[in-house]
Amino acid sequence: xxxxxxxxxxxxxxxxxxxxxxxxxxxxxxxxxxxxxxxxxxxxxxxxxxxxxxxxxxxxxxxxxxxxxxxxxxxxxxxxxxxxxxxxxxxxxxxxxxxxxxxxxxxxxxxxxxxxxxxxxxxxxxxxxxxxxxxxxxxxxxxxxxxxxxxxxxxxxxxxxxxxxxxxxxxxxxxxxxxxxxxxxxxxxxxxxxxxxxxxxxxxxxxxxxxxxxxxxxxxxxxxxxxxxxxxxxxxxxxxxxxxxxxxxxxxxxxxxxxxxxxxxxxxxxxxxxxxxxxxxxxxxxxxxxxxxxxxxxxxxxxxxxxxxxxxxxxxxxxxxxxxxxxxxxxxxxxxxxxxxxxxxxxxxxxxxxxxxxxxxxxxxxxxxxxxxxxxxxxxxxxxxxxxxxxxxxxxxxxxxxxxxxxxxxxxxxxxxxxxxxxxxxxxxxxxxxxxxxxxxxxxxxxxxxxxxxxxxxxxxxxxxxxxxxxxxxxxxxxxxxxxxxxxxxxxxx
Length: 494
What we know:
- It is elongated and about 130 Å long.
- It has 16 helices and twelve strands.
- It is of the alpha/beta class.
């Protein structure tokens, strides 16, 4: 019998989620204020309860409440009764907080090398020529044993390439100073947005996202992105794509396990695809399709399913659709298209229901035992057992003090990498150039010393006076002779 947990119900029927189908991915969609965050919290709790580690990005800051038990409330009691829940309890979940800036959780870092040229080029919004230079930078670094760990390493690498572009171009293609300069300017913009916090060491170890607590519950890793998503949404999206790619590359094949080894929730999923080059979108599509065999489930949270490329949308087994607004003809067309993504249920008018769902209500379709989508059901989402809303600063501090990985990432490490090695290489090149210049100057001085002494061309005062007198006499004599000759000629004519 498969492991299941409850998503919600309508009084007549309960919708259960099968853990052995969780690696078929899913989606939570709906307009702002319709209950997507609570649904995300419910699914994350369900996975944690059955021992599955969860990673999620906290966009609004209110998912931190998962670390504390919820409080009884008449509306919660009413919903529990309506759904027919018999074993509902209020409880906390094991949580680790993460924060790229290191203020609200464990710092999150990776290295330039691990990020790779494709993701970096997308992050910097480089054109095709500049992307080629970025690929060349990674190839040159690999061929020369240079580690690219942080932004200063990449800047040093690009500067060195520009200075040696003539000798490098023969092997790595044209490296123009204009392209290098454009990339450097993009790096400055990225640094101003705080991206320097993302790159460096110690880098995030994936196993620290895949742990369970002493009771066997999956630890929920919550990354605070409340600042990041407004300051640099492209950095946020790039990090999520990198995390997905790293899990795909590092995890072993497990086929179709009875429950996933890990589940990822990507909030504001449209940011993963907006403005991304086609090559990157294709890479995401490939990873999402193949990572199922690694036992990883990926769940996208967005306002409209149409924000997700159709190639990926078609791979999502679980669909939870909250209300959509339809004020314009374009909105109404979108509602019809969304309705078509569900398996029909004669008891539910999907198109009509999408626009009339209340807060906390959703249209849901999951996968059955054969892997086929179930007919769509209109249900109430079950209440979470943990707090709905954020922790206080003191509560967050107390939870962080109990973190099993406390002290592992706080202190940065700056080991010898491309920046230091290229700096040493530049000093060595300057020393060799200075020695060569000194050698040439010595050779020049030696040649000058061996040459015979030349007589001075300067004249003494007496020599100059004698030459002047001689010129004067010869000039006067010449004029007299000319006058005499002409006089004789002229006189003969008379």
